[in-house]
Backbone:
């Protein structure tokens, strides 16, 4: 057998793929009694009605067949919620697949993808896979205004996480509108965390033909394990997205879970409100301890420790079975990102912070 270096030198793998760094998702370790605050999952499980709907699809006859290929019932339910027909909706395997589809559809090799910096690191990975050029536009972390003058009007795809990750803050609506009006290409408003704030921009799809909006049920609806998302776009664009969407991309369990969640949406909003209340309490507690905490409209906080480096806090918290996220080499590498858990989990987190205070070194 050939060794790895011989395989790479043989030209079997594209050189640009060999050069790129793979996207690193938040880890899912098996540590006893872990307080897991690193991947922005909802700490509250799905309601019984949702679980029952999923269980009813665990049937031999249903599982032996392929699922409905375009998730037509789910698309209809999503469209009804936003006042449009199913022809405006593309269902996806989480919003990450939606991003992949949009990059395939909109960006030629050597085309431009742009986004604010810092933001969701998968955007860079998708651009590199496509062989696209990237414009990462820095913004003031404290002012948190979209750097409108820094964006290229001719970019094929502009990706805006709203609220932004990992900073957590939503962009102003008038900024999104000005950007949509200035761009020649597609503006993607990636709303993975929008249910934890008051800033939804779904209706901009009706106003601007170059705007598409992404949503996912991973965060707000506690379905990260099923991977259910969608693209909301004008029908002409939706037709093009379906051309490159993977076949049978949502299995029968995901489609059933998604439909059940939409029927229980007021309950989902109640859970989000609980997360928001906990988020604000923890932000205040960290600020009282001297931490710098950025305002958040998401289910996480970006915070700079009062003493000690963020990298050192990552390791010290892990030793106490508390897992948070750290972004090495980024513009926020002096901070840790803290997903919001249950009140009990966050009390444990604050207790560990107090225990470690003064012992974490740079």
Residues:
């Amino acid at each position: 057998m050939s060794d790895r270096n011989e395989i790479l030198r043989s030209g079997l793998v594209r050189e640009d793929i060999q050069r790129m760094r793979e996207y690193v998702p938040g880890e899912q370790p098996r540590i006893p009694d872990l307080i897991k605050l690193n991947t922005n999952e909802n700490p509250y499980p799905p309601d019984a009605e949702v679980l029952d709907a999923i269980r009813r699809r665990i049937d031999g006859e249903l599982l032996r067949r392929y699922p409905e290929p375009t998730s037509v019932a789910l698309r209809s339910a999503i469209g009804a919620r936003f006042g449009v027909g199913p022809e405006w909706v593309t269902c996806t395997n989480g919003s990450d697949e939606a991003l992949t589809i949009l990059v395939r559809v909109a960006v030629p090799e050597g085309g431009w993808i742009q986004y604010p910096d810092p933001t969701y690191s998968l955007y860079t990975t998708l651009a590199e896979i496509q062989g696209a050029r990237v414009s990462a536009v820095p913004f003031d972390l404290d002012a948190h205004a979209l750097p409108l003058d820094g964006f290229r009007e001719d970019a094929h795809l502009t990706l805006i996480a709203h609220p932004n990750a990992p900073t957590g803050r939503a962009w102003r609506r008038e900024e999104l509108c000005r950007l949509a009006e200035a761009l020649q290409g597609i503006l993607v408003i990636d709303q993975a965390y929008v249910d934890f704030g008051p800033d939804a921009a779904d209706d901009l799809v009706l106003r601007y033909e170059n705007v598409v909006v992404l949503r996912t049920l991973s965060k707000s609806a506690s379905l990260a394990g099923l991977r259910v998302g969608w693209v909301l776009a004008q029908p002409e664009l939706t037709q093009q997205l379906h051309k490159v969407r993977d076949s049978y991309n949502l299995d029968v369990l995901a489609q059933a879970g998604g439909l059940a969640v939409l029927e229980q949406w007021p309950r989902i909003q109640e859970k989000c409100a609980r997360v928001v209340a906990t988020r604000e309490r923890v932000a205040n507690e960290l600020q009282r301890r001297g931490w710098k905490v950025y305002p958040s409209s998401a289910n996480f906080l970006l915070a700079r420790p009062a003493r000690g480096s963020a990298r050192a806090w990552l390791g010290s918290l892990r030793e106490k079975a508390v897992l948070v996220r750290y972004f090495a080499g980024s513009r926020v590498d002096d901070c840790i990102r803290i997903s919001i858990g249950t009140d009990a989990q966050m009390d444990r987190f604050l207790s560990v912070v107090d225990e470690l205070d003064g012992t974490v070194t740079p």
